[in-house]
Amino acid sequence: MLVLTRKKDESIIIDGNIEIKVLGIEDGKVRLGINAPKEIEIYRKEIYSEIEKQNKEAVVSKQNLEQNKLKELFKKKQ
Questions:
Q1: Residue 68: what pLDDT?
Q2: Which end of the chain is more exposed for a tag (fewer CB within 10 A), N or C?
C-alpha cells in the first residue's frame, strides 16, 4: 500500500487520467473529489463489497437452480 500525505487542495494522479483531490478536512473526516473518465466505475468500498457479496450469492443461487433442473430431468427419464 502506498501511503501519501496531502493537504487541502492537493491532489494525486493515478494512471495519468484519474485525479483525487483533497477538498476539505474537518471533524476527522476528509472530503475527496475524484475526476475520472466516465467509463471508470467508482464505488465506496462498503458498497463495492456488498455488490461483490450479492453477485456471489446470485451465482450460487443460479448454480443451485441449474442443479435442481438437472435432477428433475434425470428423474423424468428414469
A1: 76
A2: N
pLDDT < 50 positions in the chain: none
For 9, the grid coordinates are 487542495
- β-strand partners of 35: 19
Range of the domain at 60: 43-78
Round to whole Å and give the CA distance between 54 and 74.
30
Q: What is the pTM of this model?
A: 0.66
Question: Are 55 and 68 in the same domain?
Answer: yes
Residue carrying C-alpha cell 471508470: 40
How many residues belong to the chain? 78
Domain assignment present for residue 1? The answer is no
Q: What does the pLDDT read at residue 78?
A: 59
